[in-house]
Amino acid sequence: MTVEYAHMFDTVIAFEPVQTCRHELPPSVKWIKSCVSNSQDPVKMHIDDQAPDLTHRCSAGTLEVDAHTLDSYQIPNLDFVSIDCEGMEGQCMDGAWQTIKINKPVIMFAHDPQLSNLQSGEPWSAPQFFGIDWMIGALKHQGYQFDQIDDRRVFAVCH
């Protein structure tokens, strides 16, 4: 999703922990080799052997990557956030609340219910707190409204 919208902004930062996924980013995008989560603890990722660009967080994953909260980067003047983290949207947002409260950016997120269901079986997952329903409820509480773009992508705008 970053690739689709990068041309619309002066500064674009992409958090992508897996090198094989970086090749799609335009040269103008600043790449940070990390995933965004709700803690600073490293996470394990699974890379699909048949499609190395398809990755997801998985306790049985074979690749351990750095994780940071978006809040820890203290990004000033944030206008737009695009989240495509394969079922971990809630954990990503949980580590971004101060940034969101301060900047009120437009937020676009991809949601794949199959991946969310897959992730909810993980021992570290707490879907009742960090699932998609939690994320939408928390954003609504901050004054966000939602528009469905297609069957997978949603825009959230704060009014």
Helices and strands, with pairings:
Layout: H1 2-5, E1 13-15, H2 19-22, E2 30-32, E3 35-36, E4 43-47, E5 55-57, E6 63-65, E7 67-68, E8 80-83, H3 89-94, H4 97-103, E9 106-110, H5 113-119, H6 127-130, H7 132-141, E10 144-148, E11 153-158
Descriptive notes:
- This protein is α/β, with parallel strands linked by helices.
- The chain has one domain (2-158): Rossmann fold.
- Helix content is 26%, strand content 26%.
- It has helices spanning 2-5, 19-22, 89-94, 97-103, 113-119, 127-130, 132-141, and strands at 13-15, 30-32, 35-36, 43-47, 55-57, 63-65, 67-68, 80-83, 106-110, 144-148, 153-158.
- The strands form four sheets. Strands 8-9-11-10 form a four-stranded mixed β-sheet. A three-stranded antiparallel β-sheet has the order 5-4-6, with no helix packed on it.
- Strand 10 (144-148) and strand 11 form a beta hairpin.
- The longest helix is centred in the C-terminal third of the chain and has 10 residues, at 132-141.
